[in-house]
Every structure is written in C-alpha cells, then in structure tokens.
Amino acid sequence: MKLKICGMKYPENITEIASLQPDYLGFIFHNESLRDFDNVIPALPEQIQKVGVFVDEKVEFIYNQMKKHNLSVIQLHGHESPEDCRLLQSTKAKIVKVFSIKDTFDFSVLAPYESVCDYFLFDTKGKLPGGNGYTFDWSVLENYPSTKPYFLSGGIGINQIENLNRFSESEASKYCYAIDVNSQFEMEPGLKDLEKLKEFKNNLSC
Ligand SMILES: O=C(O)c1ccccc1NCC(=O)[C@H](O)[C@H](O)COP(=O)(O)O
C-alpha cells in the first residue's frame, strides 16, 4: 500500500521526512489547524506527490495554493459538494474526498462523488475536521460498496501495525490504496518523528 504522511509544516523536517520516500506528503491549508502550512515547500524527490488539504475553502483559494505550491493532489476535508470536486478535477490534480466515520457509516453518501473524485479517504469523526488522533472501527469497511481506491486514515500509529497487517489480509481492505498518518508520529503539531516513521514503514507488510 502507498503511504501518505500528512500535516507537514517545517521545511527542514519536510526534507528529513522526504528521505523516507513516502508516496505522498500532505500540507494543511486551514488556519484553524495547528498544522496550518504557511511556508515554502522545499524541493522534493519527483516521485513524492504533494497533497493540499482544504476544509470548505473557495475553489479560487484552492486553485491559488495549487499553483503556488505545485500541488498534484487535492484533499477535500470539509463539506465540499460534488460540483466543487468536479471543478477541481477539471485541473490536472487528483481529487481525494474525505468522509469521517464514527461507529457506522451510510455508504450511500458516496454515490454523488463517484464520478468526480479519484479517491475516497476514510477518517475518524471527531471534534476537529481532521487530525483527531484516534481510529475508527475498520470493520465498517466490510460493507464498502465501491471499487474506488481509498485512503485509510485516523489515529494510525506504531501500535496499529499488527492491526494494519491483519486488515490488509481482510476482504475490507480490497480497495484500500494507501495509509494516511499524522498526529501519532509527531513531536509537536506539524513536526514529524523520523525514527518512528522509519519503524512504521519498515514493519508494514502491506
Ligand atoms: O491534521 C489536521 O490538523 C487537520 C485539520 C483540518 C483538516 C484536516 C487535517 N488533517 C488531515 C489528515 O489527512 C490527517 O492525516 C487525518 O485527519 C488523520 O489524522 P490523525 O488522526 O492525526 O492520524
């Protein structure tokens, strides 16, 4: 599975974490987040895709950040409509639409987004729009009705390695394309722990 490391904030730390060659690095453009990115992204190896994370922003603002930071993936973490997704998909960017799960999930809400995004991302529903730091019950995904590849997110840390390796062998993970990590690998909001991430990456069998 692919790996996305989200909530990058500090240039030196970004360069350090990029040395692990994750598939995606995520930058949060949401000024209410402690991980809000207001810096310059240092040069990265070409194979690492830059993901811009937005919460209910105007399409115009997203376009501007895409251009400024050369983002190739847009993650929509709020209540964005299928039409917003369609407009953004008409650029070259890949669109990830996020849905938050508590104990149950009504998968019918995905239907209008099927044709206007490239991936879904399933996160844990909590007080914050993202970065809540705890997992949801992944067995909910046993009822995933789609064939669209999805990112698994929400509170994933070192202590989830065994569960992840087990999950990757289950039917529920059939369309799981990537794992998204964030707060469980931080020394402070936005500052990622290289050694912890190294250990995580080396122990994932999926
Ligand atoms: O992390 C944030 O501060 C954040 C704020 C607003 C919208 C999205 C945010 N994070 C986006 C992510 O993709 C996180 O990786 C995802 O929510 C999981 O975070 P965590 O539970 O800390 O692993």
From TrEMBL:
<dbReference type="InterPro" id="IPR011060">
    <property type="entry name" value="RibuloseP-bd_barrel"/>
</dbReference>
<keyword id="KW-0822">Tryptophan biosynthesis</keyword>
<dbReference type="InterPro" id="IPR044643">
    <property type="entry name" value="TrpF_fam"/>
</dbReference>
<keyword id="KW-0028">Amino-acid biosynthesis</keyword>
<feature type="domain" description="N-(5'phosphoribosyl) anthranilate isomerase (PRAI)">
    <location>
        <begin position="4"/>
        <end position="202"/>
    </location>
</feature>
<dbReference type="InterPro" id="IPR013785">
    <property type="entry name" value="Aldolase_TIM"/>
</dbReference>
<comment type="similarity">
    <text>Belongs to the TrpF family.</text>
</comment>
<dbReference type="GO" id="GO:0004640">
    <property type="term" value="F:phosphoribosylanthranilate isomerase activity"/>
</dbReference>
<dbReference type="GO" id="GO:0000162">
    <property type="term" value="P:L-tryptophan biosynthetic process"/>
</dbReference>
<keyword id="KW-0057">Aromatic amino acid biosynthesis</keyword>
<keyword id="KW-0413">Isomerase</keyword>
<comment type="pathway">
    <text>Amino-acid biosynthesis; L-tryptophan biosynthesis; L-tryptophan from chorismate: step 3/5.</text>
</comment>
<protein>
    <recommendedName>
        <fullName>N-(5'-phosphoribosyl)anthranilate isomerase</fullName>
        <ecNumber>5.3.1.24</ecNumber>
    </recommendedName>
</protein>
<dbReference type="InterPro" id="IPR001240">
    <property type="entry name" value="PRAI_dom"/>
</dbReference>
<dbReference type="Pfam" id="PF00697">
    <property type="entry name" value="PRAI"/>
</dbReference>
